[in-house]
Design a protein that fits this description.
Blueprint: E1 24-27, H1 31-41, E2 47-51, E3 74-77, H2 84-94, H3 98-105, E4 107-108, E5 113-116, H4 118-130, E6 135-139, E7 153-155, H5 163-173, E8 181-184, E9 187-189, E10 199-200, E11 212-217, H6 219-231, H7 253-258, E12 286-292, E13 299-302, H8 311-318, E14 329-331, E15 334-337, H9 343-346, E16 352-353, E17 356-361, H10 371-389, H11 402-413, H12 443-464
Parallel strand pairs: 1-2, 1-7, 2-6, 7-17
Antiparallel strand pairs: 3-5, 4-5, 8-15, 9-13, 9-14, 10-11, 11-12, 12-13, 16-17
């Protein structure tokens, strides 16, 4: 059956699989909500976009514009040949992304990065949606769960979701909407760990007996590590974050270290129940454990190592840990006031809330991190909702693409027990298998192989969905 493929801004006059589809309501006019609205409208589906600013302001936003860039004006690397986020840019361009089109139109010099004139960018997004005959923009707050009469809703409210809506979602799902300082642990690429020093073992050999990667420290190394933690540069909080308390079960390691030099050695770095096979007669003073973080087994998170140190300090200090001297990080630690869902537990494969499938989620509220990732999940949510409005079954992008890898992490590939916001990275992709008789590609060659495979696998999905 034919589906609407109208040009941007043109009225849909074609025959469609479902006549006069009902409007899709989108809550939140950030990057994700704006992209979702665009994807729906260009498929002939009417949209009501609800944005609470200026009726209700936030502490972070400075304007009333849709798709306002709150912090940096950079969308990060635009290298689609060897960068995961650059690849995501290119996939979104090929999928007709409004956010990428406006970013390209308002690009400013930034080397290999895609940076924009933030005012021109936001104005372009807002103008495109305001002038689309299928998009209605309503300036109002949705204080609680969306109206039950709305058949299809995309919630794209971001990390600063209003308190009434966050509380309503929490009550519906039984999960805490995380509105406190959420300290995030770093994640390391498994292939960058030195296993001549590290080893696999579970404490007291529980479970499979080899569920964790262990990195040992003697007393001298531990004391140097504690000194470095206490002296490290820390991230300053935004003004609106300063009164938000820490979550006591997720304290930054430097805060724990301030409570006593041996606090970590008796906490997340305790060495009991473990034996270093490289030195079995000597008990380490402390051990750092890393736990598998994705279903593919390519990423491992540093257990208990949430931190508010600056990125530069994290790299310097964590690479002094035996076994992590050449560690490459898929994500560094951080500390945010954040509201996000535990996607792997709460969302189905096409971003619908399992507890109420009329609600679909998009953007940073799903647990992705970054402008581009937020817009990308909005693109997916918009396309999935449009398919349903036309009586079709939504099709997900290949797992080998950046869009598919990001979706997979949010909806099941991530570990529900340790799920935290994450940027797109190659650790979320299925591994590249070497050709028969050849070694597995490494470094830039490996990254280029991921990108080539993704762009080869994307066309069929992008054209048909």
């Amino acid at each position: 059956m034919p589906r609407c493929k109208r040009a941007a801004g043109a009225l849909c006059l074609c025959g469609m699989t479902k006549e006069n589809p009902t409007p899709v309501h989108i809550v939140g006019g950030g990057l994700a909500g704006s992209e979702a609205a665009w994807q729906l409208a260009r498929r002939g589906v009417p949209v009501v976009l609800h944005e609470m600013r200026p009726v209700r302001k936030t502490d972070a936003h400075a304007t009333d514009s849709l798709a306002e860039l709150v912090c940096s004006n950079s969308l990060r690397s635009d290298d689609h040949e060897a960068s995961a986020v650059g690849l995501l840019h290119e996939e979104m361009r090929r999928c007709g992304s409004l956010i990428l089109a406006c970013a390209d139109a308002h690009k400013v010099p930034a080397g290999a990065a895609l940076a924009v004139d933030r005012d021109g960018f936001s104005a372009a997004v807002q103008d495109a949606l305001a002038n689309d005959p299928l998009v209605e923009i309503r300036r109002e707050e949705i204080a609680g769960l969306p109206d039950p009469a709305w058949e299809t809703v995309i919630v794209a409210t971001g990390p600063l979701t209003s308190a009434p809506l966050a509380e309503a979602i929490r009550e519906l799902t039984g999960e805490d909407a995380l509105a406190f300082f959420d300290a995030i642990a770093p994640i390391v690429y498994k292939e960058s760990i030195d296993f001549s020093k590290a080893w696999f073992q579970s404490r007291y050999d529980k479970g499979d007996g080899a569920d964790y990667i262990n990195c040992p420290m003697n007393r001298e190394q531990y004391n140097a590590f504690i000194d470095a933690l206490l002296a490290a540069d820390k991230v300053e909080f935004h003004e609106w974050e300063k009164d938000t308390p820490y979550f006591d079960g997720c304290l930054p390691i430097e805060v724990m270290a301030e409570r006593g030099r041996e606090t970590l050695a008796f906490g997340p770095m305790k060495p009991v129940g473990l034996t270093d096979p490289n030195n079995p007669t000597v008990k380490p003073h402390a051990i750092i454990q890393l736990r598998q973080d994705n279903a593919l087994g390519t990423l491992y998170n540093m257990v208990g190592f949430q931190t508010k140190m600056t990125y530069g300090e994290q790299k310097r200090i964590f690479r002094a840990i035996p076994g992590l001297e050449t560690a490459e990080f898929a994500r560094l630690g951080g500390l945010h006031r954040n509201t996000f869902l535990n996607g792997p537990r709460l969302l189905d494969g096409v971003l619908r809330l399992k507890a109420d499938p009329r609600l679909r989620f998009a953007g940073q509220v799903t647990g992705c991190e970054g402008y581009v990732e937020s817009a990308a999940v909005g693109l997916l949510a918009g396309r999935f909702a449009a398919a349903e409005q036309h009586g079709e079954t939504p099709q997900t992008p290949p797992a080998t693409t950046a869009l598919g890898a990001l979706l997979g992490h949010i909806t099941g590939g991530g570990d529900a027990e340790t799920y935290q916001p994450m940027n797109i990275n190659f650790g979320l992709f299925p591994p590249i298998e070497p050709e028969p008789g050849k070694r597995r590609p490494r470094g830039r060659e490996r990254k280029m192989a991921y990108c080539r495979r993704a762009l080869a696998d994307l066309p069929d999905w992008s054209a048909e969905n």
